[in-house]
Amino acid sequence: MKFSVKRSELVNKLNIVSRAISGKVMIPILTGIKISVTDSDLTLIGSNSEISIKTVLSNTPEKQENLVIAEKGEIVANANFFTNIIKRLSGDRVDITTEGSQIKIVAGKSEFMVSGQSADNYPQLPRIDDLDSISLSSKQLIDIIGETIRSVSIQDSRPLLTGIHFIIDNEQLKAVSTDSHRLSQRITQISSANSADVVVPGRTLTELRALLEGIDQLNLQFDQSQLLVDLGQTTFYSRLLEGQYPDTDRLIPSESTTGFVIDAAQLASSLDRVSLVAHQSGNLVAKFTIKQGKLTISTAQSEVGKVSEELSIDHFIGQDLEISFNPDFVRDALSSIAEEQLNFSFTTNLRPFVIRPASFSDNNKVQLITPVRTF
Amino acid sequence: MKFSVKRSELVNKLNIVSRAISGKVMIPILTGIKISVTDSDLTLIGSNSEISIKTVLSNTPEKQENLVIAEKGEIVANANFFTNIIKRLSGDRVDITTEGSQIKIVAGKSEFMVSGQSADNYPQLPRIDDLDSISLSSKQLIDIIGETIRSVSIQDSRPLLTGIHFIIDNEQLKAVSTDSHRLSQRITQISSANSADVVVPGRTLTELRALLEGIDQLNLQFDQSQLLVDLGQTTFYSRLLEGQYPDTDRLIPSESTTGFVIDAAQLASSLDRVSLVAHQSGNLVAKFTIKQGKLTISTAQSEVGKVSEELSIDHFIGQDLEISFNPDFVRDALSSIAEEQLNFSFTTNLRPFVIRPASFSDNNKVQLITPVRTF
């Protein structure tokens, strides 16, 4: 293998595949990046066995200076070490040659010779049966992930809840996550007539989101156990979580007895202060008191202290209410929805309450939070 | 105690005293900040028993809006918790009142009531006998610390080496540090006729440096066991390290048999690459090869690989040489000196070599590095 490449292009590609690489893999060769060169392409692959990322740099006539291939071949290079070397080299170009299992890296007056591993032992990429694909804009997927990722469970006791449930049907994509204390739902209109029902690991979507910058349109393909995302030069693979995700539609209340509209920035600032007292005590509870159309947020923690703030609300309807909740969950919901005006609706202080954008009355953007029982 | 204060002023003052506060103190009350109010001043004190910082906000007629005192008193507030509350409040002003051992904090529509502790139990600040003081510009002290702090030992086996040795005499301040593998020395001309010979803990100087921004001139005072730095509104106290610092003058070679001048940026960039291979192997060794007026830097590590780079040098004098060293020490020395052109001078490959600014031939700015024996 022997090629010369524009260093900035190689650094970009290494940054992409490095997102799949974890220090904590059971298969030693997966600490490496597979580098393959054909007559026309340089392909890099990184994987942690759950997520795999492949990216291709082509030897196109328009941009011949990007990649000049002298000899085909493949090798596996230590991911961090190789990437750090390429990043710290001086000069625009780097020449890479294999000599047996050694990799020679030359740029400017620097010459490295580092150990590689045979690419024969590198696992194959997953195969996805050629199903119909679902086309989506990158912006749509960024919004979907942003609005649902925070409610993904971080506990392994119910593995399915560590993922986001995607239900694609009737030109609609519904994404739902819940850690059983709160729930996020986002419904997006899409133009695909295909359907699917899968659970994608939350970590997968966090890594995928990081690859979407500069991408316009993408294609999703699913089979029973794998997701493939086609981003053009880059292809992203992830295993899916298997099993039956709980029915969440029945959890979203269809009625409310108390409601108001509130400025999100005002509430976020209050929550940040109230959280200080809750976190200082280790007891993550705050309380909304709604009385005669006025809203107070407060917490009182013996030993530590107490805080109380009055908030301005609009469009108050319904009955007085006292309800306790985890302030971090409401703070997260505000970050997830990212709208200036929010509608809160409550039934009783034992039932989940719902946060929606003030301009939405449907269930397209929902953050649902279960209250904390304090008695 | 009852006062009203401009919030941004209080945040500034809290940031200053917080630098002395550590989560790992043996004396529980030192996790707090002592707040004292007299008829004319608000004083804050933070301490970790090694370092103490006192800062004063005065009720001056010109800036009356900064501080309005209604009632004298003092209390100790939990440092992190109180500081975070003040930082996250909305509005320009904050009103602080004590009610027994409780502290009431009111700003805008927020009202906090948090637990404090009696100031009676807070330790007294160290007393420094009224010795002659040494005046220094803030810039001089920043340079002295920056050029010597990296050679301070981080190991407790020889406690004196965890400090910087200050020798003040004859209108000269000599600062020296060594971890026994390398040595940094900086001599500064000062206008004080007083003399002193003390060892200041490295951590003290790191914290002190952080307080020097915006300060023009400062005064140092020492007694046998304490340092006091007068920064105007802020006073910084530190204990000194006791004992006889080793004689370091005899360690700096007065002759050399090989020498050259090199561009610091070029060498730093090469060292960063060579260090990658050394760090990957865990064996922190690199080698200068000086042959017929040419300099090569290299390292070869079995298992990991090797790297070699040719460097441009000027003003070469003397004999060929091969010398092995810890590349991190040379990299640190480059950061410490922070000059564009450096002079390296060597005797044999067993004796320490010296790095100075190319424009200096005296010992006012010295970085000395002991070679690594590789045979």
Automatic annotation (TrEMBL), chains A, B:
Molecular-function annotations in GO: 3'-5' exonuclease activity; DNA binding; DNA-directed DNA polymerase activity
Positions of the DNA polymerase III beta sliding clamp N-terminal domain: 1-126
GO terms under biological process: DNA strand elongation involved in DNA replication
Keywords per UniProt: Cytoplasm, DNA replication, DNA-binding, DNA-directed DNA polymerase, Nucleotidyltransferase, Transferase
Entry's Gene Ontology cellular component terms: cytoplasm; DNA polymerase III complex
Positions of the DNA polymerase III beta sliding clamp C-terminal domain: 250-371
Description of how the protein assembles with itself and partners: Forms a ring-shaped head-to-tail homodimer around DNA.
Function, in words: Confers DNA tethering and processivity to DNA polymerases and other proteins. Acts as a clamp, forming a ring around DNA (a reaction catalyzed by the clamp-loading complex) which diffuses in an ATP-independent manner freely and bidirectionally along dsDNA. Initially characterized for its ability to contact the catalytic subunit of DNA polymerase III (Pol III), a complex, multichain enzyme responsible for most of the replicative synthesis in bacteria; Pol III exhibits 3'-5' exonuclease proofreading activity.
Stated name of the protein: Beta sliding clamp
Source organism of the structure: Oenococcus kitaharae DSM 17330
